[in-house]
Design brief:
mainly alpha, Helix Hairpins, 2 domains, disordered N terminus, transducer, HAMP domain-containing protein, cell membrane, MCPsignal_dom, transmembrane
Length: about 425
């Protein structure tokens, strides 16, 4: 193995440019010596004796120089000139140049290194070109995604603003309903007097809110909470309307009883008048009964008027609730559409369950129902106000998201410009 290495070193030394130049010089001298002898033989003997050495030396130098220059031109200058031409072509961007066959001397090693450099440079340019194309495609895709996200965010922001506006209207309507129901409660208390109040049995609203990764998830949960609350409130108001009808029927019965009592009291007064002095006490009682019957009749009339107002207010509340339900359903549809586009939102449901006791007596059942409705309306009003605040917060988050998406768009544009500049730079080089 050491012998092989030694033999390789000897071959490299043999192919060395210095060895070649030395061989050329020695060969030139060997050629020039016979020529010099021949020329000296042609000279006069006296000249040959006096100047022969100088002339021989000069002729040797001239011939050796000419011969050496010729071979050095072939061995050194020509390859270097060819390499210079290739270098100029590469400098102009042509990386497809054909490298001539390399010799094994130092110039051949230089050409080999130049070939490796061109090949590496060509690979680098191709990689840069390929990378810039991929970068441009990625930036375009990122820009499209950012634009789509921007459109979706604008829709979310508009939907949230619409939800906030709707919840404000709902809150106002619910507060009006609460005022009307409060007035109805006062009327019922005035009719019933000191009727024993029945404890309100209801399961208050249980809220199970699971915070999501973004504001849209919160919006969906709040919208469903409002939808369930409004639906149950609509059911309660319809039940209240049915109870109002029952009270009207009871008032009609009371009015009939009062009229009959009035007639009986009138007949009793007539009989007492016929009885003379012995019937005076009975006449006083009959007159008092008749007066109470008239008062009862007047009270039933006032109650009927109040019930009529209550029914009208209830009908208006039903219409308001239905409109609110419709708005909430539209809001849920919009937020669900947004939720499908992002594919990162989990649903949170909140239900409100409550039960009512049957009213044992018309007045007590009416009072209990109205009080439960009052509490439910207050709870719905609280939820609606909270939902309005949440909608405002979500809207602010959406605006911040729009700003962030704008920054992403700017970054993708800058990335696209960079990839375009890279492509322009690589176009200067011909690699095919």
């Amino acid at each position: 193995m050491e012998n092989g290495k030694l033999e390789g070193d000897q071959k490299e030394k043999f192919h060395s440019l210095t060895i070649k130049v030395n061989i050329v010089i020695i060969g030139a001298l060997l050629i020039s010596v016979p020529l010099t002898g021949y020329l000296n033989s042609l000279l006069d003997h006296s000249i040959q004796t006096t100047y022969g050495i100088y002339i021989s030396t000069a002729i040797n130098i001239i011939f050796a120089t000419i011969i050496a220059a010729f071979f050095i031109q072939r061995i050194v200058v020509a390859p270097l000139k060819s390499l210079l031409d290739l270098t100029r072509e590469v400098a102009e961007g042509d990386l497809t140049v054909t490298i001539p066959k390399k010799s094994k001397d130092e110039i051949g090693q230089l050409v080999g290194s130049f070939e490796i450099m061109v090949r590496n440079l060509r690979d680098i340019v191709e990689n840069i070109n390929h990378t810039s194309v991929k970068m441009a495609q990625s930036s375009e895709q990122l820009s499209e995604n950012a634009n789509e996200t921007n459109l979706v965010s604008v829709q979310i922001s508009n939907s949230i603003l619409a939800v906030a506006t709707g919840t404000e209207g709902q809150t106002s309507g619910i507060e009006k309903v609460a005022v009307e129901i409060t007035e109805m409660n006062e009327g019922i208390k005035e009719i019933v007097g000191n009727t024993e109040k029945v404890s309100l049995l209801s399961h208050q609203t249980t809220e199970h809110a699971f915070e999501g990764e973004n504001a849209v998830d919160k919006t969906v949960g709040q919208m469903k909470l409002i939808q369930n609350s409004v639906s149950e409130s609509d059911t309660s108001i319809q039940l209240l309307q049915e109870r109002s009808q029952e009270i009207v029927q009871i008032l009609n019965v009371i009015s009939d009883i009062a009229n009959q009592t009035n007639l009986l009291a009138l007949n009793a007064a007539i009989e007492a008048a016929r009885a003379g002095d012995s019937g005076k006490g009975f006449a006083v009682v009959a007159e008092e009964v008749r007066r109470l019957a008239e008062q009862s009749n007047q009270s039933t009339e006032r109650i009927a008027i109040l019930i009529d107002h209550i029914q009208r207010a209830t009908e208006a509340s039903v219409e308001t609730m239905r409109a609110v339900i419709k708005n909430v359903e539209e809001g849920i549809e919009i937020t669900n559409d947004t939720k499908e586009k992002f594919s990162v939102i989990s649903q949170s449901t909140t239900k409100i369950n409550f039960e009512m006791e049957n009213i044992l007596k018309a007045a007590k059942r009416m009072s209990t129902s109205s009080e439960k409705i009052t509490l439910t309306i207050d709870q719905i009003s609280t939820v609606a106000r909270k939902n309005t605040q949440n909608s405002i917060q979500v809207s602010a988050s959406s605006q911040e998201q729009l700003v962030a998406i704008g920054e992403i768009n700017d970054a993708t544009k800058a990335l696209s410009n960079i990839s375009s500049n890279l492509r322009d730079i690589t176009k200067r080089f011909n690699v095919l």
